[in-house]
Write a structure and sequence with these properties.
With about 500 residues, this protein is of the alpha+beta class. It is built from 15 helices and 14 strands. Strands 4, 8, 9, 10, 11 and 12 form a 6-stranded antiparallel beta sheet that branches. A two-stranded antiparallel sheet has the order 1-2. The chain binds adenosine monophosphate and magnesium ion.
Length: about 500
């Protein structure tokens, strides 16, 4: 065995020493296609994320090896890996599509770290598979940068998500609305199994495979449910709860996924498949981040209902394994989890420790005021931490966000009274609020600037700069004010669509 470095007494591996357990590849053939990535010429690393490398005990220095990019783009075989594309189907914009599957992603296999945790390593943009349909199997540099940065931004915010290990680009031009440089992203998750992975076997009436998949997911990801009286019902209820918590976290962060099709819903309750996502800047509940979503099905304010719809779809897919009563209970379980978590998160954003009747209204009234002022959602919450109970008025740093100052001042009096009622301590509260109200979010124009530099000049420094700020979004860094501001008025909006 080669010598590696150690970190926190964990042996850090070379690429050759990673331990693969290809459990998904071991499932019956119907679950996947064995397929190798299709490399592109002259690959080079665009960005590498040491925080993700550490999760698989990979020595981050390995990502600076001259041949690392060749591994990433599939020109070199990862020792021990057994690459497959995964089968799934799903409901896209409410309509069932019988076969989707990994059309441009290839699962290298699952790397197990010293703690026994298993991480899927998946290459996105790895070329054609049996599931590519009309697509070219590729991803563009623009979208891999967005996925990579947003995964780390979500993780920094404490929101469950897939993680980005690295991006490589090469000499390959991909045609979208216009020709763009292609790239590949390695992303990681304990599993990439989706709601659609189950739906495909339900609609094909292949219930024996449905059961095999449920048993697989239980064994590897919900071991505490195995051996219980109703493990499949337990699985459904737990996924409903996790999904409810996830959607609540999106709402509290002011984030919209953009394409909440059931094939983009993780069975682990992770944020999965970043496409035209967006953080709201000016608060607008009707915010639609996906330019292709003409009816706003996946608008910000619809996400909680869509989560409910998607859990119902999963419950139906699992109905051959679960009692009817449990199928019906799942969406309610989701709703209960989502509403409870949302209330808890919003109280925390306001720095409230106790639960009082009327807290919901305090939150809603603030959101309505933000809406009418088109105030910056992130910056208002961060600034609210500066409110002091002895002051007659909220500080200007908060008031300046509101056009209707008097209406806001009335709200601020109610907020102050509410803080007094629970004997809030100003400094301690601000400290708490600063740990849940970020300074930095991935604003579209920030991502776009990093993308433009990368695409036009092969200058990747801005990607790493954003990665660093977003991985610790609650700590204010010196000389970064520009990263906290919405785009200047008049700057054209960045248009993001499904095409990526
Ligand atoms: P997405 O919108 O990225 O969640 O993808 C929906 C489906 O289309 C999945 O089955 C993807 O694998 C597939 N897909 C998206 N883009 C491509 C592409 N460029 N080539 C092949 N398949 C793709
Ligand atoms: Mg997808």
């Amino acid at each position: 065995m080669e010598e590696g470095v150690t970190r926190d007494n964990v042996h850090m591996n070379t690429l050759e020493n990673l331990t693969f357990h290809n459990t998904y590849a071991s499932l019956p053939e119907v679950f996947h296609q064995r397929v190798n990535p299709t490399p592109f010429p002259n690959p080079h690393v665009v960005s590498a994320n040491p925080a993700a490398a550490v999760l698989i005990d990979l020595d981050p220095k390995e990502m600076t090896r001259p041949d690392f990019a060749e591994f990433v783009c599939g020109a070199k075989h990862w020792p021990g890996s057994d690459p497959v594309a995964m089968l799934y189907s799903g409901h896209q914009f409410g309509h069932y599509v019988p076969q989707l599957g990994d059309g441009r992603a290839i699962l290298l296999g699952e790397v197990t770290n010293a703690k026994g945790e298993r991480w899927d390593l998946q290459i996105k943009g790895a070329g054609l598979t049996r599931f590519s349909r009309d697509g070219d199997g590729r991803a563009v540099l623009r979208s891999t940068i967005r996925e990579y940065l947003c995964g780390e931004a979500m993780h920094g915010l404490g929101i469950p998500t897939t993680r980005g290990l690295c991006i490589v680009a090469g000499e390959e031009i991909v045609l979208r609305e216009m020709p763009e440089p292609g790239a590949m992203l390695i992303r990681m998750a304990p599993t990439h199994v989706r709601f659609g992975s189950f739906e495909v076997f339900f609609y094909r009436r292949q219930h024996e495979y449905l059961k095999i998949l449920a048993d697989y997911v239980l064994e590897h990801h919900f071991p505490h449910l195995r051996g219980t009286e109703q493990p499949y019902a337990g699985l459904l209820q737990e996924v409903a709860t996790r999904t409810g918590h996830l959607v609540a976290q999106w709402q509290a962060a002011g984030w919209a996924h953009g394409v909440l099709n059931t094939d983009n819903m993780s069975i682990l309750g992770l944020t999965l498949d970043y496409g035209p996502f967006g953080f709201m800047e000016r608060y607008d509940p009707t915010f639609i981040c996906n330019h292709s979503d003409h009816h706003g099905r996946y608008s910000f304010q619809n996400q909680p209902d869509i989560g409910y719809w998607n859990i119902r779809a999963l419950a139906q897919a699992l109905s051959p394994l679960v009692d009817q009563a449990d199928v019906q209970a799942a969406p309610q379980r989701y709703e209960h989890a989502m509403l409870g978590k949302y209330a808890e998160l919003m109280r925390a954003k306001l720095g409230l420790l106790d639960t009082h009747a009327g807290d919901d209204k305090l939150v809603t009234d603030l959101l309505n005021l933000m809406d009418s002022s088109r105030a910056d959602y992130t910056n208002v919450f961060r600034a609210l931490g500066e409110c002091r109970q002895e002051d007659a008025m909220a500080p200007d740093s908060v008031r300046q966000h509101f056009l209707h100052r008097e209406a806001f001042d009335d709200w601020a009096v109610r907020y102050r009274d509410r803080l007094c009622a629970e004997h809030s301590h100003d400094a301690e509260r601000q400290n708490r609020m600063n740990q849940v109200n970020p300074v930095y979010i991935l604003r579209n124009h920030l991502a776009q600037r990093a993308i433009t530099l990368a695409v036009r000049e092969q200058d990747y420094a801005e990607i790493d700069r954003l990665l660093q700020l977003l991985s610790d979004p609650f700590s204010e860094q010196p000389e970064t004010e520009a990263y906290t501001l919405p785009p200047p008025p008049g700057e054209p909006q960045v248009i993001v669509s499904c095409s990526s």
